[in-house]
Automatic annotation (TrEMBL):
Originating organism: Microbacterium terricola
Gene coding for it: lacE
Keyword Signal among UniProt keywords: yes
SUPFAM superfamilies listed in its UniProt record: Periplasmic binding protein-like II
Domain of life, source organism: Bacteria
Protein name stated in the entry: Sugar ABC transporter substrate-binding protein
Family (UniProt): Belongs to the bacterial solute-binding protein 1 family.
InterPro entries, per database record: SBP, TAT_signal
Region of interest (Disordered), residue spans: 30-51
């Protein structure tokens, strides 16, 4: 790998607009002393102890606490050194793009799951070598986030999915159980409203990432972003119309307020009873416990998302990829393999609260005996990610805009879907 002789730094951006500062920082402190040549790409990895240094980029909280876990790997491999650089999410995408363009990449990097489809076609990542990790051990939806054109690049490191948070006390007062179907969900939202909630079910009425709330409804109705063979967009379909109209029905009926609630707002409204239910990931469990206090812990629960043909939810998280021009391929893949072990992922949850990507890890009592994390584990067995195409960020931004126009009453669902289809076809899949 090329690395600089100077210093050591989640969705769509081009490399042309990036500043030179990111390029100069991209090397992340790689040693100027060459290591032994990497084995041929695609070769297997043996079980001997790892040796030498590797540089790893990790974003956000993961980057701040990965050193603690990496130290355990170093204890088990005394001749190996893991240099972790914490990279803020803001700007991380551009930094990786710049590093690839300049040939100054680390050995391993964490990736937002939606970035794989954009970066993999550059040829920067080594495809996951056969036998290095058991790809069948991961949740199917999560493993799918590493695959581009039938080839897996790296591994899903930790996962995120969305479930339904709801007020158990309000549901009990309304005589309702957790909803399982769309009809149940409508009745549930009506019951929450009857108990005083301004939003029986809080949904984003547009804006950034609203598409990730609408997409599960599409999947549940049997639709998808692309046709089955992946050759064309499939927005002008009955499944999309059914899902979009159902989503919008919560706004036209007044079961969802036409107000976008961000993290920091929705917790307080949920605790106050102004919101009866909402969709979110595992991080909200601790937020609600902390902000609601001990007396509130018995007033909320989580459940799998209600569905139509299926109960499919959205899955995201973080992946790990190894750069093809790493100077220490052996240790890079050994570290990734170790991070993919069930026992390591349980340990990582204790450090980071990130959910395991390996399905068997949820058999550990830490997850199996917990009323919250056990539901997330169940939901991950029916969860999907957006398609791994380079243009997804552009397409999703269009969907976000069209959702807002529909929920405001400025456009019909039919017109919105026709607009999405037309614009998506003009942009293309990028592949």
């Amino acid at each position: 790998m090329n690395h600089p002789t100077t210093t050591r730094t989640r969705w769509l951006a081009g490399t042309a607009a990036l500043g030179i500062g990111a390029l100069l920082l991209a090397g992340c402190g790689r040693s100027d002393e060459p290591t032994s040549p990497s084995a041929e790409a695609g070769a297997g990895i043996d079980d001997s102890p790892a040796t030498g240094e590797i540089d790893v980029w990790a974003m956000g909280n993961e980057g701040e606490v990965l050193d603690e876990l990496a130290a355990q790997f170093e204890d088990a491999n005394p001749d190996a050194t893991i240099n972790v650089t914490a990279v803020p999410w803001d700007g991380a995408h551009d930094r990786i793009a710049t590093a690839i363009a300049g040939g100054q990449t680390p050995d391993v990097t964490m990736l937002g799951t939606t970035w794989v489809g954009e970066f993999a076609p550059t040829g920067a990542f080594e495809p996951t070598p056969e036998g290095v990790v058991d790809t069948s051990s991961f949740f199917e939806g999560s493993q799918g986030t590493t695959v581009v054109d039938g080839v897996s690049y790296g591994v899903p490191w930790y996962v995120d999915t969305r479930v339904l948070y709801y007020r158990t006390d309000m549901a009990e007062a309304a005589g309702l159980d957790a909803p399982a179907t769309w009809d149940d969900l409508t009745a549930f939202a009506e019951g929450m409203r009857a108990e005083g909630a301004a939003s029986g079910l809080s949904l984003p009425p547009g804006g950034p990432d609203s598409s990730l709330y609408l997409l599960p409804f599409v999947w549940q109705a049997g639709g998808d972003v692309l046709t089955e063979d992946g050759s064309a967009f499939a927005f002008d379909t009955d499944a999309w119309k059914t899902a979009f109209e159902y989503y919008n029905s919560f706004f036209t009926s007044g079961l969802s307020e036409n107000v976008r609630l961000e993290t920091g707002e929705i917790e307080q409204k949920f605790i106050a009873g102004d919101v009866g239910a909402f969709y979110s990931g595992p991080f909200h469990v601790s937020l609600l416990k902390d902000q609601g206090g001990k007396d509130f812990e018995d007033k909320f629960a989580v459940a799998m998302v209600p569905g139509d043909q299926t109960r499919t939810s959205f899955t995201g998280g973080g992946n790990l990829a190894v750069f093809g021009d790493t100077d220490n391929r052996d240790t890079a893949w050994k570290f990734v393999r170790w991070l993919s072990q069930p026992e390591t992922q349980v340990e990582w949850y204790g450090i980071s609260t990130d959910l395991p990507s390996v399905e068997s890890a949820f058999e550990d009592p830490v997850f199996a005996d917990d009323p919250y994390t056990s539901v997330f584990g169940e939901q991950l067995s029916d969860a999907k990610a957006p398609p791994a195409i380079p243009t997804w960020a552009q397409i999703s931004a269009i969907i976000d805009q069209e959702i807002e126009q529909v929920t405001r009453g400025d456009k019909s669902v039919d017109d919105a879907l026709a607009s999405i289809q037309q614009q998506a076809e003009a942009i293309g899949t990028g592949s």
